[in-house]
Amino acid sequence: MAILSKTASTGVPKSGTSSKRRRREALWFYLFVSPWVLGFLVFLLGPMIASVYYSMTDWDSFTPPTWIGLENYVTLLTDDPRFWRTLWHTFYYAAVSVPLGLVLGLWLANLLNKQVRARKLLRTLIYLPTLVPLVATAMIFRQVLAPNGPLNDGLGLFGVSGPAWLLDGNWAIPALVVMSAWSAGAATVLLLAAMKGIPRELYEAAEVDGAGPVRQFWSITLPHLTPIIFFNLVMGMIGAFQVFAQVYILVPKGKLRAAYDGAETMVPYLFDEAFGNYHMGYASAISWLLFLVVLVFTLIAFRTARRWVFYETEVK
Amino acid sequence: MPVDEVRMSRRGFLGIGVAAGVVTLTACGSGSGSSSGPLVMTVWGGDADRKTYQKRIDLLVKKYPELKVKLQLIPSDAYAQKVQTMIAGGSGPDIMQVAESVNTYSSKNQLLPLDDLAKKAGLDTGKRFGPVGSIYTYEDKLYAIPDRSGAITVYYNKDLFAKKGIEAPTAEWTWDDALDAFKELTVPGKQWGYTGAEWFPQWWSLAYQNGGTIIDASGRPAVDSDEVVEALQWAGDLVFKHKVAPSKADYADMGSEVGGDQAFPMQKCATHANGFWVTAGLTDAKFAWDIAPIWRGKKQAVSAFGSGLAISRTCKQRDNAFKAIDFLTSDAAQRQIIDDGEDVPASLAVQQSDAFLKPAWMKNDVDMGAFAESSGFIFRAPFIPEWNEMISAIDSNLANFWLGKESAKKALTALQSDLESIIKSAG
């Protein structure tokens, strides 16, 4: 190590080229990264800082903002039942849809990993819902979830009389969860790819030792998949906390009000405050509280990850 | 891919969360409304609206070649947000279409009072538009000139009425007359006598007919009065007690986007009360239909749908903008609105003209005079600055009522307290 660095520093011509090359590389680096940096500064960082300021003002977006300090935050936390309700809806949706999506994805991936016929076709079919635009999905689901729609007819076959999903406030979030489960194919594809990467010899060794398929799944497949599960968990959680379009389209505020009130999550709420009621400052404060919530949960996920996520390169 | 999806939604979130910031960054840019370029005019609607507005603008330019107007059509759902962003971004429109939420803008000092300009141009809104002429007045100042204005009328299926031997509805029908007819016309589970009570303009008509008001003369909410409670309960009873109007569950079973406007042309409902646009879905109807003015309660009252044209405070060519509005709302340009079958023009003279009473495109023999007749008893709806919040609170508090889970009294008592806090805090 010492010798190497010594020769490098004494070898004048060599170090000249290498530092020149390094400088040129750095130049290219800055050149290529600049569109992103500029975009970040202008379209993200600037507005983010501005929104911190606006969150401490009373601003209707037309007239100049008035500074009110932390009043928006105080009102939100102490005197706004709608805020707590939307926060609860957000947790409820995330807590059900994320684990459900993971379990479904894992189950489907495991099925597809078997030597079944028409595997490629099935894989495509399972991934297909992810490619359907959300608006189309929501339109279809509105019919599927109608009081006498196919889903309730199906439940009727088992003697269950289904609820009026999109009319009843209490059933609106379950309806959103059902819709989110429909696109579990996205996680499936990632999990399936990871399953294919697990060395065959592990399974062969396990078989020789007499482990059945269930034991193989829990002891070999699942541990190897934990990094992907973790990735899906974090991304799914962030996505669920920020759910907007699903609510906005499946249970439009103007049309299905009882369901909207029963399912309003934080982003639709802040959108409504900003663009429906012209409370831009208040909406900015909501967005920062949401940011904190997402941050806390992501940190918790990363903290606990050490205990259950297994990386092959890591020695434990 | 899932990763993209997640990134997209996160970007969407940031976009919304910090839209405030983006708005300001651009707000420092150039001032709005150039002093020599074309006037920018924003309107909402679809393609049919674009065509009609453009034709009217073409008429304007023909008359005043020195005027240039750039029409900007924005889909109805996005109109308020788009205009809000344009104004906040410092490039607001010169002329903008406004409606019930007009005073969101005027109370925030975004619109130009038009009294002086109207006086200078010799435009008498009372004469041109009747009582509707002052509908866009706020704190004694006129902020928009009416452009389109049509009352709710009762659409009825002549075939179904004839089959049951029921006489056509008239403005002199009482609530009892209406209910009797609806009962006759109902075939349980298959066909309903009526649709059109759930939307606020519809049951507001009943409330005002019953002597109630939504906001009283002193500006306080008054939805928990006996008159309003009785009217709303009557409307709710049509659905849940007498079952002569479809419930939300019934509509949902008819299809994903079906409401009264669709159920009437489908012949699921024999009578429907709503705005002029219902006509558009009836041009190819296989049955005979007609319209009539709405029935009466203790007195005559009906909601109207309409819009006006306003000039934004930042407009640099005020005289030109007013000249354009004056012409666009004149009889010559208003005729185009009915010639295209777009809407009911606000001008009384046009509403009573042959062009309106016998439109060339109308295949049926329809009593278009019902609109002029109704305009005599249009009540003045409360266009308060907190309009959006008020409507949102109404929808929210009545949601359970319209599912048949709550009485009108209970729902309106809760609504009253919500409205009191909205109107106080925003004042």
Automatic annotation (TrEMBL), chain A:
Gene Ontology cellular-component annotations: plasma membrane
Residues spanning the membrane: 27-54, 91-112, 124-145, 171-193, 228-251, 280-302
Keyword check for Membrane: yes
Pfam hit, one: BPD_transp_1
InterPro entries, per the entry: ABC_transporter_permease (IPR051393), MetI-like (IPR000515), MetI-like_sf (IPR035906)
Domain spans labelled ABC transmembrane type-1: 87-301
An annotated GO BP: transmembrane transport
Membrane topology classification: Multi-pass membrane protein
Protein name (database record): Sugar ABC transporter permease
Automatic annotation (TrEMBL), chain B:
Transmembrane segments: none
Signal peptide, first to last residue: none
Pfam families per UniProt: SBP_bac_1
Top-rank taxon, per record: Bacteria
The entry's keywords: Cell membrane, Lipoprotein, Membrane, Palmitate, Signal
Gene3D superfamilies with a match to the protein in the record: Periplasmic binding protein-like II (3.40.190.10)
The protein's name: Sugar ABC transporter substrate-binding protein
